[in-house]
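Review form for a predicted model. The reviewer records the input and the model, then writes brief findings.
Reviewer: anonymous (R2)
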Amino acid sequence: MLLGGGRSLFLLRRMNTRLLQLLVWICLFLALPSVLYAHKDIIIPLKGTNLVGLPKNYAPAELDMKALRLRIGSHAMTFSPLLKSFFDEPYELRISASWYHERSILPPYLLLHIQPKKTKDFSYNILINMDSLDVIELSVTLRESDSTSRDLPIALSEQQKEDLRKSIETFKP
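Model under review:
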């Protein structure tokens, strides 16, 4: 009888463990979407020169790809020689933005993702502060395989940093 009782106790413990595991998985499954989608960039279409989809406080929002000039609100930037060089070859441009995340982590930003058409081995990213048009980060994404890529920041010389600062003008509202 002890053997049968021990087996019953073992089965009861195993059943409780499985029930507990199931409850944990259910909780994770329900909580995961809010974690995964806590922050997602918004795709910003370019209609002519207008950036469509930004909040009104960032109007006017324009990107002129012929003049390589960006305007958001009361700031405008004519791309510096370094930024212009990212557009030398035929490219595909994807624009996204975020302004609803925690500002202590990152200011509201616009991301220009430039994919040269001749190669899929690398692409450029220009991350821009939407409040000031300061460049937050420049990077190149190296595609190592179909499933692996690596982002590398682009180091700037003092002259390049100065050129970026000088390229920004402020308009009075």
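Findings: The radius of gyration is 25 Å.
Further findings: The mean pLDDT is 86.
Recommendation: see findings above.
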